[in-house]
Amino acid sequence: MSNHPAGLPIGPSWIETPTTEPVIFPYDGTPVAEAPVGTPDLARQALDHAVAIRDQVGRLPSHVRRAALQGALSAVSERRSEFIDLLVLETGKPIVDCRVELDRTLLTLQIAAEEVARLHGETVPLDLLPSGDGLIGFWVRKPIGVVIGITGFNYPLLLAAHKIAPALAAGCPIIVKPAPQTPLATLWLVHLLRESLTTAGAPAEAVQLITGGADVGSTLTTDPRVGAVSFTGSASVGHQIAKAAAPTKVLLELGSNSALVVAEDADLDAAADAIIKGGYYASGQACISVQRVIAVDPTRAPLLQKLQSRLQSLVVGDPRNSETHISALIDPRSTTRVRTWIDEALTAGATLAHPPSSSTEPLGPTVLLDVPYGQLAWDEEIFGPVIAIRSVPDIQTAFRTVNESRYGLHASVFTSSLETAFAAIDQLDVGGVVVNEVPGFRSDVMPYGGVKDSGVGREGPRFAIDELTTTRMAIIRPTTKRGGE
User: In this structure, are 19 and 108 located in the same domain?
Assistant: First the structure.
C-alpha cells in the first residue's frame, strides 16, 4: 500500500532494524504489515544526526522550508485515498473519521507552509529609559533546536503533522516517534517529507522517525542536546517525561474528560445531536470527545428521550464501511479496560440508559447515568464510546461540576443566552470553551491545548512555531561617539 524503503528513516538514508512487529487491524485481528522496531542505539544515532544538522536546518532560507512543506502537501494529497485506507487498517477507526483526519492533515501542512512567511520579530523602544538613548533594539525568533515529537495512536497522521510541520517551519530538525500500534501512515508521511526536503535543497535527515518502546522514548527525551519535546498521550506518561526531561522544554497534550453542559434554555435537539456526534466519533477515542454531560434539571428527561431515538441509528461494525459510526477500539486490552470501568460504575450505583454491546462484538454506544464521583468513568478519560450524564439544579452548579476535574482541555455549553455563553467563557477552567457545538470541534489553525492535567503549551502551526522558537534580542548602539565628539 505505502511505498517507501524498508527500515527506519535515520540520518540521510533508511536503516534496517533488528526486529519487526506486525501491525494489527483492530476490527478482526488480522495483520496489516510488518513494522520496523527501533532500539535505543538507533535513537542515539538519530539524535547524533539531528544535532549535526541543527545549525544547517536553522539557517535554511524561508523559501526552502516553505517549498518542502508545500511539496509534502502535494504528495500526500495525491495519495489521499491510499492514506485513508491505511489509516482505517492500522487504527480501526471508521472510514468517515479517517477521511476527516486526512483532510485535517493536509490543512495542517498548508497552514504551516504559510506560517513560514509570518515568522518575524519587532523593534523595541529602548529609549524609554535615559540609558537607552541612541540605542536601536529589535528581536528575532530563532529555532529552539532539535525537537522530539511523540504521538498517540488515535490520530497518527494528523498528530505527526502537528509535530513535524511546525518544527520544519521554525527551522528545527525533528525526530518523531509514533505509537507502536500505528506507525505505518506516519512512516509514509515522513518518507514523502524527506523526498520533498531534498527536492527543495534541504537535508532529508531534518525529519527522522524511530519506533520502539519506553526505552527508546526515554533515550530521546532525556538527551540534553534536545531543544524541546512535544508529547501527545496519557497524563501519567506525560508527567514522567516532563520530570525526566528537565530542564528541556516540554509541551504536553494529555487528554481530558470533556464536558458538555446543557442549560435550561438550550436547543435540546441540537444538544442531543452534539452528544451523539461528539461522544462517539472515532469510536470515542478522541481527547476532546464528549464524556461528561451535565444537564440542568428540567432538561434531563427530554434530553434522554431525544438521545434514545438517535442512539438507535448508530451503526457499529466494520470500519471500512462508510455507514459505520463506531468500530473496535485500538486493541482488546483497551476494550477490556473500558468494560471494566463501566462495570465498576454500575457496581458503585450508576445506571445504564443504553447498554454496551455484547462482549463478542465491538463496544457499542453506551450511556451511563449518575456515575458517582470517584469512579473512573467520570473522573478519568475513558477513551471509548461511553458518555456519562448527570443532572444539576442550575447553570452555576454545572460550571462548578465541569471544573471539578483534574483535566481541562475543552468544554462546551448549549444555551440560547449570550449571558450564559460569556459566563462559560469566563468561568470554565479549560483551554477551549465551545458554545452550541461539540467540545470536539477543533480547527487546525487555532491554538489548541489545555490547562491542569490536560497539559501545557499550544498546538496549531502558528502557536506551535512560537513554542519551538526563542526570542533573540538585538541591542545596537550605532556609534560610540557622544555629543559633539
Answer: yes
150 and 231 Cβ atoms separated by less than 8 Å: yes
All 3 cell numbers of residue 291? 464524556
Does one domain contain both 316 and 354? yes
* 481 lies in some domain: no
Instruction: Give the residue numbers spanning the domain of 40.
Output: 8-255+450-473
Tell me if residue 41 falls in helix, strand or coil: helix
Q: Alpha helix (H) ranges present in 6-155? A: 40-52, 54-58, 62-78, 80-91, 95-115
Residue 1: predicted pLDDT: 61
Closest C-alpha to 175, from 188, 155, 196, 160: 160
What pLDDT, on the 0 to 100 scale, is given for residue 485?
A: 46
Report which residue type is found at 380.
E
Determine whether 101 is an active site residue. Answer: no
| E strand or H helix that includes residue 254 | none
- Please pick, among 253, 380, 381, 459, the residue that the annotation labels catalytic: 253
Phi and psi of 404, rounded to 5°?
-80, 60
Residues 247 and 266 in one domain: no
Q: What CATH number should be reported for the domain holding residue 31?
A: 3.40.605.10
Whether 191 maps to a domain, the answer reads yes
* Neighbouring residues of 157: CB distance < 8 A, sequence distance ≥ 6: 83, 87, 101, 102, 105, 185, 186, 189
pTM of the model: 0.96
In a domain, 478, yes or no: no
Can you read off the three cell numbers belonging to residue 6? Answer: 524498508
Res 480: pLDDT: 82
Select which of 98, 115, 287, 459 is catalytic. 287
One domain, residues 105 and 213 = yes
With contact defined as beta carbons under 8 Å apart, do 20 and 196 qualify?
no
* 427 & 319 share domain: yes
Cell numbers given for 276 = 451523539
Told to judge if 344 belongs to the known catalytic residues of this protein, a careful annotator would answer: no
Residues 26 and 138 in one domain: yes
Least confident stretch, 251-255, 284-288, 355-359: 355-359
Confidence of residue 484 (pLDDT cuts 50, 70, 90): very low
